[in-house]
Amino acid sequence: MSVVHQLSVGWLLDHLSFINKGGYQVCPSCEYPVPSASDVAPVSSTPAKEDLVASSIVATTYSTGTSVEKTEATLKTKYVFREEFFHVFKPHIVSASQEMSQQESSDAGPKNGKDNGNETEQHKGAKNSDGDSIASARKKRKRKYSAFNQGELDALEYHAKIRGLILEGTRCLIQEGLKSCFLHPVSEKQSSIKNLVTGHVGCALAELCEMAKDFPSINENDHRPAQIIDEETSITEQDLLSCVTENNTDYAKIIHLMGQKYLVPPKSRFLLSDISCLQPLLNYENKYDVIVIDPPWQNKSVKRSNRYSHLSSWQIKQIPIPELAAPNCLVVTWVTNRQKHLRFVKDELYPHWSVKTLAEWHWVKITKSGEFVFPLESSHKKPYEVLVLGKVQRSVDLPLRKSDMEVLPIPEHKLIVSVPCILHSHKPPLTEILTEYIKPDAECLELFARYLQPGWTSWGNEVLKFQHIDYFIALQNEN
């Protein structure tokens, strides 16, 4: 279970446990061995595209069962997500160059044992008043001008409104985590470990999606809404980008794409494409009871880092939620800590999709010792992100389904507290925390996904990004 503790205020979540739940047990058949890179055939001879389109996709099955019958002909290996991606022992997940300057201006709790007798902000509440917070924010940012702009004033007002809920709720969940030893004081050895900063794994999924626009168009008569991965299937990049790919088995599988390997969990489906090529998802003709959206919001940080392309508000509005949503569909949207985006979702985006806003939840990011990753009063970054939950408004003539009457109403406010993954935009899974609020057989879809989940359909131009095999470790199964 990824839910470590559940209280009335929310959940303490173990993100890593969810990924590794059940494990990726490797049981390749002797009849269909794992293909080597030399077995992969190129599908394009164009020099400019050679590096990207270098292979077909070859699928190999991997069992996720807890026990596997031992035979001399069966290789037993299990893949697990790398634990070091959750080694967040100290506050401030920043690059080495930024860490020094932020630590100099930070007031994020006691250091080197200093002030141990005092209550820390993370556990007992901040001592500053709202006026002190504003003064502190001005000092930290070393502003040339004394006045805040309207966006910053709106952010301060919003923070003042929800600060107490986050502080008290997080404190309760952290206390439970410390009691159960899921959270624990940082050892001297751990305190000396620098937060790991990783580069990009060698994949070019977004570039492939861009290149796909130059691929020859597929004849309407040859269109398939979905394709199944099995041991004997070889799938070209064009096929991958033109329809939903399914792994309907109880086994995980591995696919080879552009010379790279990606693990596909059991009972999962995905479409690799960008927002201009959503038609295959519509052709799939599934209606979803839950749609989770993590849009690439436009902001200064994204522009500076050039991590990924962002979308304008107008482009996000073009996402065809009404065509994808089942009646009474629960829509969950991740929103950055920018009031402009939050107002856009609640006042413009959801009404455009006929979605009624029901709640705002918050994801609170903590270290393994239970500290906020950023000071709660930081003017630079907050240790929380917002989720806006709403439901598609049903027609007045549409009767309420029995399955909808058996689920709990959406609470107005909840906290999701977890140690974050240090990989950029690797959001915590919502599967288990939404269980009480959706029907048992709910169809779930994630848009702008960067990893896959069992039982879910996922879409995005980097939908396989964190399924890359380099993010996992192969362990020998001794059972």
Explained architecture:
The protein has 479 residues and is an alpha/beta fold. It has 14 helices and 19 strands. The protein has helices spanning 15-20, 96-105, 121-124, 130-141, 150-179, 188-191, 205-211, 237-242, 279-283, 300-305, 313-317, 321-324, 339-352, 402-405; strands at 3-7, 10-13, 24-26, 57-63, 77-81, 226-228, 234-235, 244-247, 251-257, 260-264, 268-272, 288-293, 325-335, 355-365, 384-392, 415-418, 444-447, 456-460, 472-476. The strands form three sheets. A twelve-stranded mixed sheet has the order 1-2-16-14-15-13-12-17-18-11-8-6. A four-stranded antiparallel sheet has the order 7-4-9-10. A three-stranded antiparallel sheet has the order 3-5-19. A hairpin with a 2-residue loop joins strand 1 and strand 2. The longest helix is centred in the middle third of the chain and has 30 residues, at 150-179. The two termini are 22 Å apart. 35% of the residues are buried. Mean pLDDT is 77; it is low at 29-56, 64-73, 93-131, 141-146 and 302-308.
